[in-house]
TrEMBL record:
Keywords: Oxidoreductase. Belongs to the NAD(P)-dependent epimerase/dehydratase family. Dihydroflavonol-4-reductase subfamily. InterPro entries: Epimerase_deHydtase, NAD(P)-bd_dom_sf, NAD(P)_dehydrat-like. The lineage of its organism: Bacteria, Pseudomonadati, Bacteroidota, Sphingobacteriia, Sphingobacteriales. GO terms for molecular function: oxidoreductase activity, acting on the CH-OH group of donors, NAD or NADP as acceptor. It comes from Mucilaginibacter frigoritolerans. This is Nucleoside-diphosphate-sugar epimerase.
Length: 324
């Protein structure tokens, strides 16, 4: 039996979809109040849904009955400062619980981390799997939660020979995101974004991330981590391409780093007054002006993946969002 955690999320639902389209019978975990994604509702005969939170060891153990493979896509993602410590505790404890059960039951694991858990390269160099985040200086709660969750997987590998692979996707985009997560970038541009920044990052289609995970699961590779990223693109270029996809003018005003600093401070003040989520947080504001480009050579060599061009993904996403 194959288990997918976090199957109600953006990546988890795409992964589950690809598995059932391959004819697999799978089990998916969800929280009691979670809604099953529309893309998975036609496959109820192939998917067994179980209510199991990674923090609940007993429910999780029951969900692992007869399971031989686990794709761990579950994680709490939040940019709120108030969520930082509970998010770290939840993500790390959940990963530890899953790792312990995988070791006990001899289950193979593909664990989803993030490039947020990978450190920076020297200027001009690409970031690889060999770069490591400096835990002592990092302040981003999400990055720390992903790094420490990875460390639980590495603990299992080192102590008990856990059969596991870690994937570190860059910014995941896809039509099924809607206006949530990375979809917020598309929605912001569509609403008339006027500013662009000088930063850059890696981008990858959600379909390709799922393909990489399934391909890695089906290999004998263990004890490795893989950057999953299709292309490195500047924020100016990608926002311009998104604007073209919507048939509107691209952002034309350069937002310098000091301007972004003022913006996130203003957002924090407005958030404190309105008690609504800030439209921009410090981490995102700083990242928008940073160059973070990734090397995907290792995953290409491992499974021979040919990534979907990001330009194709952008057209698909804009087309979906343009539908009435």
């Amino acid at each position: 039996m194959i288990l997918v955690t976090g199957a109600t999320g953006f990546l988890g639902s795409e992964l589950a979809l690809q598995l059932v389209k391959q004819g697999k019978q799978i089990r998916c975990t969800k929280r009691a109040k979670s809604i099953i994604p529309e893309i998975l509702t036609p496959f109820n005969t192939q998917i067994e849904w179980v209510d199991a939170d990674l923090m609940d060891v007993f429910a999780l153990e029951d969900a692992l009955d007869n399971v031989t493979q686990i794709y761990n896509c579950a994680a709490w993602v939040s940019l709120k400062q108030a969520d930082k410590l509970p998010m770290i505790n939840t993500n790390v404890t959940g990963a530890a619980n899953l790792v312990n059960l995988c070791m006990e039951k001899n289950i193979r694991l593909v664990h989803v981390s993030s490039v947020a858990a990978i450190g920076m390269a020297k200027p001009g160099d690409l970031i690889t799997e060999n770069h490591h985040l400096d835990q002592a200086t990092e302040t981003d709660g999400y990055a720390l939660s992903k790094l420490e969750s990875e460390m639980e997987v590495w603990r299992g590998i080192a102590e008990e020979g856990l059969d596991a692979v870690i994937v570190n996707p860059s910014i995941i985009i896809g039509a099924s995101a809607g206006t949530n997560g990375s979809g917020q970038l598309f929605e912001t541009v569509r609403k008339g974004l006027k500013f662009y920044t000088a930063g850059s990052s890696g981008f990858v289609d959600v379909e390709d991330v799922a393909k990489c995970m399934i391909a890695l699961m089906d290999t004998n590779i263990t004890g490795e981590r893989y950057v999953i990223s299709a292309e490195n693109i500047g924020y100016k270029e990608i926002t311009a391409e998104i604007a073209t996809g919507f048939g509107i003018k691209p952002p034309a005003i350069y937002a310098k780093p000091w301007m972004m600093g003022l913006a996130w401070r203003a957002a924090a003040l407005i958030s404190a007054i309105t008690r609504k989520d800030p439209f921009l947080d410090k981490v995102s504001a700083q990242a928008a002006s940073m160059t973070r480009n990734y090397d995907n050579a290792k995953i290409k060599k491992a499974i021979g993946i040919e990534f979907k061009p990001i330009s194709v993904s952008i057209k698909e996403i804009c087309g979906r969002l343009n539908r009435p």
